[in-house]
């Protein structure tokens, strides 16, 4: 097709050139022809070319006149220019005028007519086709052309006559030239074997090529086509005004762009309609597995290559693949060796494991005592080392000295820390045990570190006595109880101090210490220390006494297995002594208390019966602070001193007083009946107060129940008025209710006022009075009444006699309703239906909740949203496309996610292949 | 050929149950769809139509998924006592039931006799795990119903009239002699709510965190227990009231009064939402079905009535007294009267509650409270001589939703739930008769046409406003007094214009209507009856 087009184009070009050549050739072919052309240009027949084009054509065709007839050419030129100037776009010269001329000269011309004709025919033989062509091209103008041809002839005659007249030469001279020309143009007939000379005739035209095909099949077709082409190229129209042109251009552009844009429609529509647009392009993170990384490994260094060769040794590989046993052969290790090695490894592993578990276990131990012991052990080890190694001993002593010095300087452990200060400020008695112990320990550390010591250098002698800590520690390990241990310690301390006191310091006889002032100093110091020791002794004594007291007390109460404090303990003791017979009835101070007593009593007695029920020891422990070995005791305690007036816990459940009902009857006792009797009045009062509404019958039944069996209760019947009130409480409730309803209705829709006339207003005489109210007033009243009736009818409770439904508008509730329909909705029903389903996680399965609440756009953070790109399928650019798709294999994938999901963004990633 | 046939029949037989299952599933899914979707054909807006269609489809999927979940995750069906032949369910004694059930369940039936501390009231936590017990004579206790262990008991040495758990077992409120108190699980008194007066009854609205009480003077109090703020104090004006029950569906409180009236309240309106005359005598008990549209009341007039709360009409009336009523989770109605308990069941599905079970306590026991334990087939009874519980097959919901109420929840879950509940706490104004109204469009109270007076006033106001407009200072002769006056006049005219236009339109309309009326030939027009 393209080729065809090309050829067509080429042909058109050829035709153009041919035409031009025709024109340029014209003067050489014949003067007449040239004249004709000139005339054509003058007369403005044929194609109306724009002036510029024509000028160009003129330039191409140099004027034949200037070569031959210079003189008349001027004139002719003048004439022409005149004509051109004046009549450029004028109508051609009227034919009549020319005919007129002809009429004058028709006789003159007669003798030349024949040769002219003859010549013309000759000429036409050479350029007949051209003429033909022209004529065919201007088929529409063919009629005018015929007349034109005649006119041309006339013109030529006139011209020759003109020339004759001017030059005085016979017309043959001119015609002869023409004839000459005609001779020149007489060439052998054109055929495909005899191509016309280009120098003389110009290039070959299509016509030339076509002619020989005349009469062959398809010729007419070809001819027609040629004609059409010719025609198309020939009709050059005047360019449209610029505005029009632009308009057309725009129109075309619009159509084109529209077409371009419509292709996006589907895409855009899809994206618009999608409830959610996804931009979660999965980013390529690279390798995800170790295997993937390993597979790309290539050995580079020598070592790697070597290893690689070994690993991928075909023999090894084969062995590995076939049978693992064969690998041993390659190993060249004896079985024993392997076994040994394995054993060794196993051993090591087990050891390691054991060690590990042990370490773990130790690490987990939170016991302070254990860690203390551990520390001691470590110290012991250190001390043994000290014993063995003098160097180590020295070091240790130096360390000790340093520590002491530090302590003396900083007084770190003498309650100077913030924490200690705070605790002291609050008061030691308010602290708990642990804090107290911590403080004591600190103080102890302080004293031990700041205690004056004999020189560290002579440690050998004093080691035994000056290390009471060590001894203590040893003892502590053995001693069983806390109290014993402390007493032991104190005892030992006492002994030692006594020893110190009794021990006489022998004053050294020689050396520096024997100097008198040194002796004095020593004495002084000894005295001071003795005083101190005595004080300490006293202290120890006091402590010991205390400790003994405590332990005694504890042993007393030890039977309960619990510690008892303060008041409770004392009351305890008293309780033991107290007699069991207490007159409960007398103690009518508070009913609640009595109730409690009674319960406890009951419980005590029930304990024996309900052993089958399990008791939660935790609860028991929690229940009573006052030791609850016997509930009775605690009860008596309470009797003796009621204690604070706050709530008391009752131990019914704790002591399992609940039981299976049918199993036994409630246990009674004298005391209980007594108590109940005392209680009864109060109880009845309560009933009167609280249960006014309950039936009298029921109350009696209640009396018949357990309570009556418990004791004689003086139950008072409700008073007469009470009974009456109860019996007739529902009297005429309906009437009352109706009245109420009317009230409510009137309040919400007040009844219209009756029309009233002011006396003296609107009445002249008694005529008015007789007439009654003015009609408009009555009418208004009626209207208002009607309105009210309507309103009442519209109420929800209009047909419900015994129901009043409030019609009040709650402003606070109004806030929860929407004032108007939200935007896209136009009908209330649709809107309300659309919100009927809850979308929260409480009401929907997890998966659907997610879908229901998905935002309009789902996008991962950091993902760049690319503009939509259209993919145009172009068959010529298939290679490029495939290359691209190879580059982005993931882009090709279209994930089929939930329905309604738009994959537009995804599939659009394919870039449009660029056209070259 | 035969083989093929066999195959096809096999396929058919396989397909039949599948189809059946799918149908069943569809039926179930319908329940989760909460009604039909809107008719989208009516819509003209294509975009909205599309959106709604997508939405509806999602809803359908969700409902289907929910139905499937229900099918697989809630496999337990509730059972009932099923009689054989001439057996009557109400003849079956507790002993025989206890004998038949498994050991764990048999432990749930018990009697705790506490004769001295007066009639007992009780309350369960919403998950049914814990029970609070209040003896009138000051005995308060919490019992773990799973382990049957006493968690704590205290003696407050004061009359206790009612007890109610707050949002979980850690707190409970007791209505005592003078005030209401809040205690924690350890029996520590946390708050004394003095504003409530001497309360008779307590109720807790768990979604709104409101503690409601009625007192001797017929007052109703709402207190927000998260902020301590008193939300509302209302006087009922109907005297002493000790019948109070909250409707679990919409949190509206129903009060029973001596005059036989029942009033329904919400904290944001001082007047009762509904007042209905239920009985001729005093109302003794009220209970609401969990569905929210069924109510049972009992009165001194020897009647027990069932009400449809959508129409406020009586559905059924039964004869008998009742001191206590309660609906179970699955809709059984327990009626306590004297020492006798009746349990009725809607066996036919038409709200005709027929007798299902009976139970007789020891003679002389006066039942003060019956309460079904949720997620258990147990009915708790508080009576004058302690507390008991009996087994009522088919009363409790067999499948619990651990997001709603978990009987086995641990402390962490409890804490989590507490936090969530607090976050999801509803404001008091959300309480209304029909909570589904929330979010819908306000029903436009048909605003009647503004009266002439109003219109006049409006016109005048508009004119005044137009007159008071301050004109800008103009130049070049346009600031002349006459011009200014003219401008002002124009403004006034402009202001009047819409009203006048409206008027014209109306008059035109009227004319048109009158013309339509007068279409009879003139000769017959005189016979047209004038409209009143």
Number of helices of chain A: 41
* Molecular shape of chain A: flat
Proportion of β residues of chain B?
25-35%
What structural category characterises the helix and strand content of chain B?
alpha+beta
Which value, in Å, is the CA radius of gyration of chain A? 68 Å
Percent range of helical residues of chain A:
55-70%
The overall pLDDT of chain A, averaged over residues, is 65
Radius of gyration of chain B: 33 Å
Question: Kindly, what is the distance between the CA atoms of the first and last residues of chain A, rounded to a whole number of angstroms?
Answer: 21 Å
Give the termini separation of chain B: 85 Å
Low-confidence stretches of chain B are 1-11
Question: Strand tally of chain A, please?
Answer: 4
Beta-strand percent range of chain A: under 5%
Find the biggest chain interface: A-B, 95 and 105 residues
Largest sheet data of chain A: 3 strands, parallel
Entry summary:
The complex is a heterodimer of chains A (916) and B (532). Chain A is mainly alpha-helical and 916 residues long.
Topology readout:
The complex is a heterodimer of chains A (916) and B (532).
Chain A: H1 2-29, H2 31-43, H3 51-60, H4 65-68, H5 70-87, H6 95-137, H7 142-167, H8 171-185, H9 198-201, H10 206-210, H11 219-234, H12 242-273, E1 276-278, H13 290-295, H14 302-311, H15 314-322, H16 325-331, H17 335-364, H18 368-388, H19 390-410, H20 418-426, H21 433-450, H22 459-466, H23 468-478, H24 482-502, H25 516-557, H26 566-577, H27 591-607, H28 617-623, H29 631-640, H30 670-690, H31 696-710, H32 720-727, H33 733-748, H34 766-771, H35 775-794, E2 803-805, H36 811-814, H37 828-834, H38 846-852, E3 857-858, H39 878-887, H40 889-892, E4 901-902, H41 904-907
Parallel strand pairs in A: 1-3, 1-4
Helix pairs in contact in A: 1-2, 2-7, 6-7, 6-8, 15-16, 18-19, 23-24, 24-25, 26-29, 27-29, 27-30
Chain B: H1 2-33, H2 46-73, H3 94-100, H4 103-106, E1 110-113, E2 120-124, E3 130-135, E4 139-144, E5 149-155, E6 160-165, E7 171-176, E8 180-184, E9 189-193, E10 199-205, E11 210-215, E12 219-224, E13 230-235, E14 243-246, E15 253-256, E16 261-265, E17 274-277, E18 283-288, E19 294-299, E20 303-308, E21 313-319, E22 324-327, E23 333-337, E24 340-346, E25 353-360, E26 367-373, E27 378-383, E28 386-391, H5 411-423, H6 452-467, H7 481-517, H8 522-525
Antiparallel strand pairs in B: 1-28, 2-3, 3-4, 4-5, 6-7, 7-8, 8-9, 10-11, 11-12, 12-13, 14-15, 15-16, 16-17, 18-19, 19-20, 20-21, 22-23, 23-24, 24-25, 26-27, 27-28
Helix pairs in contact in B: 1-2, 6-7
